[in-house]
Amino acid sequence: MSALWGLLKKNRDSIVAIWREATLDTYPTDASNFLKKSKDPFHNPVGKRITQGLAEAFDILADQGETARVTPFLDDVIRMRAVQDFSPSQAIGFIFLLKGIIWEQIKKDAEKLADSPDWRELDAKIDGMALLGMDIYNTCKEKIYSMRVHEVKNQCYNALKKSNLIVAIEDMPDDQDGSLQ
Fewer beta carbons within 10 Å, N or C terminal of the chain? Predict the structure, then answer.
């Protein structure tokens, strides 16, 4: 293990805590304050999932794991942000915050490693996480839009049916086969 990866593990708790705070700061003030203060997972399941998701994603990153392994943890965080109508850049922007947080937390020890290929690898892994995040966000939004279209179709159908404007084919007289003449 190189020095950079060792520094990440050594400073894990402070990096994850600051990343959590920075991520929660991306929410509106009232929501952010609630998410930060309420520690009860039953009253604050969103805060709990964010905390766990960020910690697990960071652990995989610091262990030099495959970037794709962070998908379930990012999914927890990004799925909530997609439902909460964050824009794509807002929904995944918290991932890029990690770069600055890592640098600030380990810079005095890491300045001598600035030209290390490990920094480029770390940057690439964080960028890869962001790309995965974009895929997750897009998949969530597609699902939301599909559900909305389905709901509107059902509402229209039910409204037409209540107004007796829809006739089932079996209810049609024998001389009409449903085709246009």
Answer: C
Tokens 């766990």 — which residue? Answer: 52
pLDDT in tens, 91-120: 999 999 999 999 999 888 777 776 778 888
Which of 25, 3, 1, 2 lies closest to 101, judged by CA? 25
Cβ atoms of 61 and 125 closer than 8 Å: yes
Distance CA(154)–CA(66), nearest Å, equals 43
Cβ contact 69:134 at 8 Å: no
Q: What is the CA radius of gyration of the chain?
A: 24
Query: 102-133: b or e for each residue (b if 16 or more CB lie within 10 Å)?
Result: beebbeeebeebeeeebbeebeebbebbbebb
Helix runs in 38-116, H state only: 45-62, 71-83, 88-110
